[in-house]
Write a structure and sequence with these properties.
Blueprint: H1 6-30, H2 35-70, H3 75-89, E1 91-94, E2 112-117, E3 119-122, E4 128-130, E5 133-137, H4 139-144, E6 149-150, E7 163-164
Helix pairs in contact: 2-3
Length: 175
């Protein structure tokens, strides 16, 4: 390592670390009789089952959506269906521009903001699932509109259509 710059030494250490990780993985896989291997296989088994269950749920939602379209569902019917799925998944739609964490970074520069695209928040963790987008509005336009939000709290899972303002204590954790 003498005569090497720190960047080259760092790259070599990373390569050694990757190789050690591969050796560790090979040893765990090689002898499934150890406690560590059994735990690793059990974790993998659970992930495979969870993945299959999630896929089945998603496919069922697609079939339900297609069936609704085949029956001539209008936009309101489809909106209600998607709202139900969001509620079941524990996702809240955020329509309140005051809850800034749910939206892409935005500088007001003395003006007000309104929601261009809503944000979506996981009600169990408070993490942002999909950031929304805000747009500037003049102060006169902002006074005429009243923002609403589906509260990103566990209570919102029961009815995601209930509007709640930021003053009601809705809080969003950063992801």
């Amino acid at each position: 390592m003498f005569g090497m710059n720190s960047r080259e030494a760092g790259r070599r250490l990373e390569a050694v670390d990757r190789r050690l990780e591969m050796i560790y993985t090979a040893l765990v896989v090689r002898d499934p009789g150890t406690h560590l291997s059994a735990d690793a296989y059990e974790g993998l088994r659970k992930q495979v089952i969870a993945s299959a269950t999630d896929r089945l749920r998603h496919v069922a939602q697609l079939a339900e959506f297609d069936l609704a379209l085949a029956r001539g569902a209008d936009a309101d019917d489809l909106r209600a269906l998607v709202s139900q799925w969001l509620s079941q998944a524990g996702v809240a739609r955020v329509d309140d521009p005051e809850l800034r964490d749910a939206f892409e970074p935005f500088h007001l520069d003395g003006s007000s903001a309104e929601v261009d695209l809503p944000g979506y928040v996981d009600t169990n963790t408070g993490r942002v699932v999909k950031q929304g987008r805000l747009r500037r509005v003049s102060t006169q336009d902002a006074a005429a509109t009243e923002p609403a939000v589906t509260s990103p709290t566990k209570e919102a899972v029961a009815d995601p259509a209930v509007p709640v303002s930021a003053e009601d204590g809705a809080e969003i954790k950063e992801s």
